[in-house]
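Technical note accompanying the year-one report. For the benefit of new consortium partners, we illustrate the data format agreed upon in the data management plan: each record pairs a sequence with a structure-token string. No post-processing was applied to the example shown here.
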Amino acid sequence: MKIPYVNIAPEYRDVTLYTRVRWANKYPTKKSFYLSIHSNAGGGHGCEFFTSPGVTKSDQIASIFGEEYKKEFPDRRLRTGFSDGDLDKERRFYVLTKTKMPAVLTENFFIDNLEEFQNILNTKSGRDKIIKYHLKAILRAKTEVFQENEPKNLDLLEDWVA
């Protein structure tokens, strides 16, 4: 879809958080954000979005992710933390506090929740829906947070998810 990106940790081995942040901080911060995509564990259900404490651009981006998630999964739980008036949960995770650019961490369902694993995470259609809401959120963040021109590749998104 011609969305500029950098895969900070493409290796098939663990890369320290320090190294990931150091690599990320080499990129321009004005029109970039750090996105860390995960599936949760430890019991529970639904999705949640994390940013660093305080009100920042990260909160705006996380809210967009939450809105797109609810459009794609209207009947699924969105685990929220409205402590500062928005839907993200705030934590002092290293990648959220040490990157120079806005940073958001997404937790997409629980791998140890059998229903979510069998019906979403372990199915192509479920993973495609996760990808779709991430793509839509990225495109919205480009226009709404970073004031880039309206993306011309939205038709590619619809073709991709068809």
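Partners are asked to follow this layout when depositing records. DSSP finds six helices and five strands in the chain.
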